[in-house]
Specification:
The chain is an alpha/beta fold and 493 residues long. The protein is 34% helix and 21% strand. It has 2 domains: 159 residues, Leucine Aminopeptidase, subunit E, domain 1; 318 residues, 3-Layer(aba) Sandwich (Aminopeptidase), CATH 3.40.630. Helix 4 packs parallel to helix 5 and helix 8 packs antiparallel against helix 10. Bound molecules: ligand BES, manganese (II) ion and zinc ion. Manganese (II) ion binds next to loops.
Length: 493
């Protein structure tokens, strides 16, 4: 897609379709729009009347103008009430316009939306993100694509001249989101610990990053008994991925992003029963997928921040050499864990990944994981859970999430609940009682981070959507790549 940020008045713009954004209940044709309507013999006012378009969020109306060499179609899109708008309204409106333009088989599109908060840069980036995310198509596993590919070739962002950099930032971030979507959508016979490690190596090659893949023996030497316990039943080798982006000069900060990388989660001997969604457990590397997606964007954006991208990748399978329920594992910080449920495997892999990250001497660690069904029960499919031991870091992540339009809710680190994780024989069990299951999971992870400020994100709900969900479409969403990138870039105000 070619984007142009230009100041051509919309009256003079020519092309297949012009998208015009309206605030709710402020749909009147004044100024240049009145002029445009007059020129088009009242086509726009007729469209307004016929469709009773009121500018409600998510609504649109479209008509042919009858003009061939001017504006061929007019598309009105609603943005909602001015007092309920946020930056994501621009993403959503642009997505509505682009989706309509795709359906109408347009090649060239003009986009005329107001500027958000006097901030043309943020406006431009949000519009580009909305368009890119909405037009994404993944036909890798279809012999015949179901939906016709978009014909859109060029999109002009009117009134946003000079914002070329914001355009490319939006495109780069979306390239990271797309990588995450592709990794999550691909099934477990395509995305394995081996291919995940290969993806990290490809990223390192493409963007000049350092990469180290620790094999089983390397992990044994580091004492990663928790990670390797999970990996035992798989016929595939575990891969501990450590990808590093280093800026040219002295880094302003050093950060680590740790993603749960279960390329399949059968539950192990605590096998997932039918109805538990076992067939969806390819998404259990959503944390690793978003981590690598963020790496792809960071590798191109090149901030003055050092970032370590980490994932302990394996599968949770069953076999004669798998771990038994009740086995005791020793993590790389020396703590022992009684595995009272082999299906609580993510936290076991993360335990060693967090210890590894902590030893790097970074300023902050963020882990992200499709960790618990309990978090989905608590917050539903659109909102991720956030836990932290550090208020400032939690603030940073919350702000980055807000700008990205990805939703998180701060959850409590209720230390008392750790009592439910006490083991008679080992330092702790890996699961507690059912109530507060996403909280005890976070408290478990906390055992593996010493003093480094740390945030845990449970993304079990939002990584996948079964039904069409705005610019996230359907299927893998790429959540929360944009939040991670904003956070690393320091876009928190
Ligand atoms: N990968 C699952 C969590 C999950 C559930 C992700 C639904 C996406 C959608 C995790 O490994 C798991 O199995 N968690 C168990 C924990 C339980 C055994 C304490 C769960 O949530 O049931
Ligand atoms: Mn599990
Ligand atoms: Zn899992």
């Amino acid at each position: 897609m070619e984007y142009r940020a230009i100041d051509t008045p919309r009256l003079n713009w020519t092309g297949d379709a012009l998208v015009i954004g309206f605030f709710e209940d402020a749909v009147d044709l004044t100024g240049d729009l009145r002029q445009m309507d007059e020129r088009l013999n009242g086509t726009i006012s007729e469209l307004l009347q016929e469709t009773e378009f009121k500018g409600k969020e998510g609504t649109s109306a479209c008509t042919r103008t009858g003009v061939r060499d001017g504006i061929r179609k007019i598309m009105l899109v609603g943005m909602g009430k001015p007092d309920s708008l946020n930056l994501d309204s621009w993403r959503r409106t642009a997505a509505t316009g682009a989706t309509l333009a795709k359906k109408e088989r347009c090649k060239t599109l003009g986009m005329s939306l107001p500027v958000w908060n006097d901030d043309p840069e943020a406006t431009t980036q949000a519009i580009v993100e909305g368009i890119e995310l909405a037009l994404y198509q993944d036909n890798r596993f279809k012999s015949e694509p179901e939906d016709k590919p978009s014909k859109l070739e060029q999109i002009d962002l009117l009134g946003l001249a000079g914002q070329q950099e914001a355009i490319s930032r939006g495109q780069i971030i979306c390239s990271g989101v797309f990588l995450a979507r592709q990794l999550v959508a691909a099934p477990a016979n395509e995305v394995t610990p081996i291919t995940l490690a290969q993806t990290a190596q490809d990223l390192a090659q493409a963007y000049g990053m350092d990469v180290e893949i620790l094999e089983r023996e390397d992990c044994e030497k580091l004492g990663m008994g928790a990670f390797l316990g999970v990996a035992k039943a798989s016929d595939l080798p575990p891969k501990f991925i450590h990808l590093t982006y280093k800026p040219k000069g002295t880094p302003r900060r050093k950060l680590a992003i740790v993603g749960k990388g279960l390329t399949f989660d059968s539950g192990g001997y605590n096998l997932k029963v039918s109805g538990s969604g076992i067939e969806m457990m390819k998404i259990d590397m959503g944390g690793a997928g978003a981590t690598l997606g963020a790496a792809k964007a960071i590798g191109q954006l090149k901030p003055d921040v050092e970032v370590h991208f980490i994932s302990a990748a394996t599968e949770n399978m069953i076999s004669g050499h798998g771990m038994h329920p009740g086995d005791i594992l020793k993590a790389s910080n020396g703590k022992t864990i009684e595995v009272n449920n082999t299906d609580a495997e993510g936290r076991l892999t993360l335990a060693d990944a967090l210890v590894f990250a902590d030893k790097l001497g970074v300023d902050a660690i963020v882990d992200l994981a499709t960790l618990t069904g309990a978090c989905v029960v608590a917050l539903g499919n659109d909102i991720g859970g956030m836990w932290s031991t550090d208020d400032i870091l939690a603030q940073e992540l919350s702000k980055a999430a807000e700008i990205s339009g990805e939703k998180f809710w701060l959850m409590p680190m209720e230390e008392k609940y750790f009592e439910g994780m006490k083991s008679v024989v080992a330092d702790m069990k890996n699961t507690g009682p059912r109530p507060g299951g996403s909280i005890t999971a976070a408290l478990f992870l906390q055992q593996f981070v010493k003093d480094t400020p740390w945030v845990h994100l449970d993304i079990a709900g939002p990584v996948w959507t079964d039904k069409e969900n705005g610019y996230n479409g359907v299927g893998a969403t790429g959540f929360p790549v944009r939040t991670l990138v904003n956070w690393v870039m320091g876009e928190t105000d």
